[in-house]
Amino acid sequence: MPKKAERYTSDILSRPGMVFAVDLKDPKERIQAYLDSYKNDPETTAFDASLMKHHLKLLSATAPPKVTATFTMKVTRDFCSTMRNMHGGAIALVLDMCTTACMAPVSTPDFWLFGGVSRTLNTTFLRAIREGTEIEVFCEVLHVGARLAAIRGEIRDCADGKLFVVGEHNKASISFEKKL
């Protein structure tokens, strides 16, 4: 008989970037609080920390029934390949974190308090993103249910609006066991 997967315990929720500030009603303030949770913890050195602390800027956000968020960032060398184009892995990271942050306006204490875990993250690369480019990342929650959510992301050039990347992120909500 297969061994049952070990559950995460609720103490993990105190880490930066784990829960959304459901006490904030304004969608932009709620997403900004999520970004700030990384900035306010100097100990955070996770893979996503540099992006969240130093690069992403939130421009706008809307609440249900149409949940959206728009971010900007400059593509710096640390996000690029040796060809000085934004690396595909860096693009996936940006889409992952922006689409996750876009979930904040739908969360409540009993519904998607935590951004969930990725099931799929599909990216379609349409053109190279050169080092130094200012990009805009637009995200929209397409569907959110009790256990699964689908969020769409687009990365465009801030200068001319050209579409660089389209992404779709499917997420699963997970539950936590109380720590004994």
Give structural notes.
With 180 residues, the protein is of the alpha+beta class. The protein has one domain: Thiol Ester Dehydrase, Chain A (Roll). 19% of the residues lie in helices and 29% in strands. The chain has 3 helices and 6 strands; from the N terminus they run ααββαββββ. It has helices at residues 27-39, 49-55, 88-101; strands spanning 57-62, 68-74, 117-125, 134-144, 148-157, 163-172. It has a 6-stranded antiparallel β-sheet. Helix 1 (27-39) packs across helix 2. The chain is globular and about 45 Å long. The model has no long low-confidence stretch (mean pLDDT 92).
Helix-strand layout with pairing:
Layout lengths: L26 H13 L9 H7 L1 E6 L5 E7 L13 H14 L15 E9 L8 E11 L3 E10 L5 E10 L8
Antiparallel strand pairs: 1-2, 2-4, 3-6, 4-5, 5-6
Helix pairs in contact: 1-2
GO molecular function, one term: fatty acyl-CoA hydrolase activity
Protein name: Thioesterase domain-containing protein
Organism: Aspergillus sydowii CBS 593.65
